[in-house]
Every structure is written in C-alpha cells, then in structure tokens.
C-alpha cells in the first residue's frame, strides 16, 4: 500500500515573547500532537547562520580522501560517508543518501571526563585547508545550547515542572550535545525501491534543534502504525529552527509528549541541514516523571540509563568501523 503525503502546519513558538502562558500552551499542543514545532526570535543572527552553512559546505566540497582522514571514531566524532547510516533497515535497500560530520562537546584528552563514551576531543579539519572552521562550529555549538535551554524551560512548564527542571547537573548541566553537519547531494529518493535521503526514524535523546537551508525534504509521520502511513512535509521557515522531541522525552513524559517518526526524501536538489542533538548526561536515569503518571496511567517504559540507551541506538544505525579500510 502506497504511503500518502500532505503538507504539515506546525505551531511556531516565539522565544522572545513575554507571554509565557501562550508560548507554553502552543508548545504543549505541538508536543502532544506531533512533537515538532518551529522556534523563532531565538537569538542567533541570520548572518551567523549563513556563516555556519557556508563553512559546512566548504567541508563537504573537499575531496573524499581529505574527508576520509577525519572518518568518525568510536566516540562518534568526525566524518560519516554516504550510506554509512541505516536508519530504517526494514524499508531501506541501502544506507542513507547523505554524508555528515559529528562535533561533540570539546574536552582535552587529559580531562578525566574525556574518557566517557560521548565526551573527548573532536576531530577538526586542518586550519590551513579550512581557516576559521573550528571557531565557527564551536561558537555555534555554544549558541545552539542556549536556544535549547530556552526551549527546555518551556517544555518543563508544559509538563507542570519547575522551569529549570532540565538544567539540573545530571541533565543539561552536563549534557551530551552533538552538532551534526549533513549534506544531501541531490539524488531523487524512491521510497518504493527503498532509497531515501534519510530513512524513517525517531531521534534518541531529549531535544533536537534543526537548522535547514531553503530546500524541502523533511517529512513527519504522526501515526507510525497507520496503513498506509501519512507523511507530512515540514517546510523550511526562514529565520526559524525546527525543533523535535526525542525518545527520552517521550519516556520521561510517559508518552504524553511524542517523539515522532521523520525522514528525508531527496527531490533532486542539493540540501544542507544542521541538526543539534541534545541528550542528558551519561549517568542520567530516564524514568517517568511524577507529573506524568497516576494510578490510571502508570509508567509505560522501563527506567534506562542515558549512556547505555544511546550506545545501543548508535550501534544499531551505523556501519561497523571495521568495514572501512583505513590503510
């Protein structure tokens, strides 16, 4: 049975608004409906975003041999080649038709915390080849986290929690935050043949902040069990981020807030996007929030430690590094 497609109409949250009640109400409806919404007036200038996208393109325009020198490591830092990631093995003939680059929170190797699974030094292109590249990405990493924190405060209020709930040390106080540059080179996806820009998946963590260029491609499916599935186009909104909730927030909220299936279909146009994935700390235990359970609505998900959950999800979706010839 063929999937259906239509346009989506997402709520838009103004992060500069003083009308907190309206912002929380709009966000709560979006989180319960599909877990996707726009945020505007977020504090990052369009000029700087243009700079970030330009630097992203500069990297992906390098020869493959240069990019492969920065092949992702066991800490999920660095370059991910075409077809490396397989997000929907039940429906995909091959890996995603995209390439990417992971940038995590930078810690020097001699920092004890750098031994943790998702911490440590990043891999960086040579500054002679891409001058200013590292500085741009590190600045964006910091600014994006501030947008996430503003958004997380509204999410906390929507869950009847203290506004600063997610800023506790074990959550966004010591987060696992991964910036990922993505490049879709312009192939046309063919779902009937199992060929996708990015296969259908939900994100793993707390919240994802997505910056996109003006090229369409992102789709969401509010009901993954429907036959046929209905896919809705999420159009780029100039000056806005697309925000979506991850699986951990769905677990915290006992399924009240939703981590929704999404995918990318290539339409023949080259496309660049920059998701910023934010998870709580390695040791954070994700379990149903007191405000989201009752005798009639007991916890639906088992407790899970963030580090173990993320490791399994990455292992399930990425090619084994031993498949690459590093010689």
From TrEMBL:
One of its GO terms (molecular function) is oxidoreductase activity, acting on paired donors, with incorporation or reduction of molecular oxygen. Belongs to the iron/ascorbate-dependent oxidoreductase family. Gene3D superfamilies: B-lactam Antibiotic, Isopenicillin N Synthase, Chain. It holds the Pfam family 2OG-FeII_Oxy. SUPFAM superfamilies: Clavaminate synthase-like (SSF51197). It comes from the Eukaryota. This is Fe2OG dioxygenase domain-containing protein. Residues 175-280 form the Fe2OG dioxygenase domain. Keywords: Iron, Metal-binding, Oxidoreductase. InterPro entries: DIOX_N, IPNS-like_FE2OG_OXY, IPNS-like_sf, Oxoglu/Fe-dep_dioxygenase_dom. The keyword Oxidoreductase applies.
